[in-house]
Automatic annotation (TrEMBL):
The chain crosses the membrane at residues 12-32, 64-81, 93-117, 129-148, 186-205, 225-246. Keywords: Membrane, Transmembrane, Transmembrane helix. It comes from the Bacteria. This is Iron export ABC transporter permease subunit FetB.
Amino acid sequence: MHLIELTPFELGLAALLILALAGLSLALSLGLSKTLLIAAVRTTLQLWLVGLVLKTLFAYASPLWIGLLAAFMLLVAGREVMARQQRRFRGGWGYGVGALALTVPSLSIILLTLLVILRPEPWYAPQYAIPLLGMLIGNSMTGAAIGLDRLTQTAWRQRAAIEARLMLGQRWDVAMSDIRRESARAGLIPIINSMAAAGVVSLPGMMTGQILAGAPPTEAVRYQILIMFLIAANTGFAALGGVWFGSRRLFDERERLRLDRLKS
């Protein structure tokens, strides 16, 4: 079985569904028609550009170029984490906390996967490195953003209770323990739900893609289990790291609560 080739005509038929949805949004005065169409155009252009970049990378595989693309992906993901927070940190920390929380676990896990688990030849083979890193970052980005958003908003609302705990002699980490725990839990819930529903409610993307490409279902399942475990671990580490870095940034060296470091 071979992969069915798609022509512009088939893609155009799928695009008609987006146009129909935009028309329905306009008729119902939802105010989302323009946003939906722009998102569809961005999706097309971005994916087409990525396809051209990956085609070049596959033809001229080099650790340098793959590393530069990975760095670019992490930089963009760090900005997305920052953009999804209502009360972000001021200055460079607004970007740095999320970017650091994503970079450390993502690079560690992708290197572990390539060097120890999959062991492709060469170890930096772009057909493995780039898609795997993209899946890791894309899912971890949501977990880190949710965790940081919950942390900063809850700290803002409960500042009186936190300061009261500090006045009673508690350390900053003890005064923030409940908030940190709930924030980390919020960041982990989406990936836990995805794992619980995998194979029962939905067929995950990588498994579906491999089956459509003609891979045996059992082989596709093994790869999908591996990916789900990697994504869950990466998301968890990113959410926990982001919450820890963020909560530490909320206090100065004298353990005073510094909500002035957040944008109001």
